[in-house]
TrEMBL record:
Presence of the UniProt keyword Membrane in the record: yes
Keyword Oxidoreductase: no
Name the UniProt record assigns to this protein: NnrS family protein
InterPro entries: NnrS
Species the sequence originates in: Alkalimonas cellulosilytica
TM helices/strands, residue ranges: 23-42, 62-79, 91-109, 115-134, 146-168, 180-198, 219-235, 241-260, 272-292, 304-326, 338-359, 365-388
Pfam families: NnrS
Keywords on record: Membrane, Transmembrane, Transmembrane helix
Domain of life: Bacteria
């Protein structure tokens, strides 16, 4: 960089030098706060009257408060590596973060406000991110990763459906928007993990990289695309349950096959790797649970959903944040030992939540333990990575 650029960089607060810094930190803090409030409200210890209702707030905020912030933080950071152009920072990043923070405040405290006001602020975040992301790719003349722009806009449409359910008092709209969001993010996770997991595994274990099988990738991702499209256009209501069970089961097996080829057993000495592998395994687990439910077995939709959300999304986010936060601040990819404990805590919390309906005693007891594990895991991340995310790069480079 030119010396003037370096001076401008040094004048910036470190928190505003790359999108992952504020969005990872505030996203992780928000997730543990939101989960803690959810647990206290479930237990009857506090009363919350958020926008919509308590269940809607929990569903919406874990997806569009927490997960969306991390997705945007990741994309607006990765685009600099992909293009070589300076990514969003400084003033634009500050405004984007403030929009996200304002939406979180309105969702929690804006229950008495007109729904269109709350929705307008909340719906602004992802399109703004898509604009910032897309213009960098277009400036660089790259098209491969433009795929993520329509993904962000599709997520906005799903978010609008959730808000429409509240404003029009049609809960089915909200449920439709929520499920569409889960399937779309699951598809994105499968795409991204298919790109990076073999590379991360080979580099981290010093073993040969597993070459992809194009037909297997196309079959696995094609099945997930089909599931998303069927849900998005409400075609699942017209298809026999057994046919949907077969589709979920086929997608589960194909995704499992992709993962087995990358050899998780090579990663057991590298927490940043085995945590990411286990996160990916929750995708076929969630698909298998949806297949079991469609086949008429005693599996609740909530159980299947949490395998994909708390399991695949939550664990993948913690693993990726721990990795990206080190790599993009000029540090070695060697997290503190407490992060291995955080990964174990989170995975145990997910298993408790997914298995709760079959465990003895009251489900609320297991939910509370799962919530506690989530809060502790993301609390560890916030404590360990606060100085990493709020100070300049360790290697003295910009960013």
């Amino acid at each position: 960089m030119q010396i003037t650029d370096l001076q401008q960089e040094e004048a910036l607060k470190p928190l505003l030098r790359q999108a992952f810094r504020p969005l990872f930190l505030f996203g992780a803090l928000f997730s543990l706060l939101a989960m803690l409030l959810w647990g206290l409200a479930l237990s009857g210890l506090i009363t919350l009257q958020p926008y919509g209702d308590l269940l809607f707030w929990h569903q919406h905020e874990m997806l569009f408060g927490f997960v969306a912030a991390i997705i945007v933080g990741f994309l607006l950071t990765a685009v600099q590596n992909w293009t070589g152009l300076r990514a969003t920072h400084g003033g634009p990043l500050l405004w984007l973060t403030l929009v996200w923070l304002a939406a979180r405040a309105l969702m929690l405290f804006g229950g008495s406000l007109p729904g269109v006001v709350v929705a307008a602020v909340d719906l602004a975040f992802l399109p703004l991110a898509a604009l910032l992301f897309g213009r960098i790719l277009l400036k660089a003349g790259q098209s491969r990763n433009l795929f993520f722009v329509p993904v962000l806009l599709l997520l906005t449409a799903c978010n609008a459906l959730m808000h429409a359910g509240v404003i029009l008092e049609q809960p089915l709209y909200s449920q439709h928007g929520m499920l569409n969001t889960i399937w779309l993010i699951t598809l994105v996770m499968a795409i991204v993990s298919g790109r990076v997991l073999p590379m991360f595994t080979a580099n981290g274990t010093q073993t040969p990289r597993i070459e992809a099988k194009p037909w297997l990738d196309k079959a696995a991702l094609g099945s997930l695309w089909l599931i998303f499209v069927l849900h998005f256009f409400l075609l699942t209501n017209w298809l026999p349950a057994n046919l949907m069970a077969l589709l979920y089961a086929a997608a589960s097996l194909l995704c499992l096959w992709r993962l087995l080829r990358v050899k998780i057993w090579l990663t057991f000495r590298v927490p940043l790797l085995w945590s990411l592998h286990i996160a990916c395994y929750f995708i076929p687990v969630g698909l298998a649970l949806f297949a079991a439910k469609a086949a008429g077995l005693a599996v609740s939709q909530s159980t299947a959903i949490h395998a994909l959300t708390a399991g695949a999304m939550g664990v993948m986010i913690l693993a990726m944040m721990a990795r990206v936060s080190l790599g993009h601040t000029g540090r070695m990819l060697q997290p503190r030992p407490v992060m291995a404990a955080a990964f174990v805590l989170l995975i145990a919390a997910v298993l408790l939540r997914v298995l709760a309906q079959w465990l003895p005693g009251f489900a609320l007891y297991w939910y509370q333990l799962a919530i506690g594990g989530w809060v502790l895991a993301f609390g560890c991340y916030c404590l360990v990575y606060w100085p990493v995310l709020t100070t300049p790069r360790a290697d003295g480079r910009p960013g």
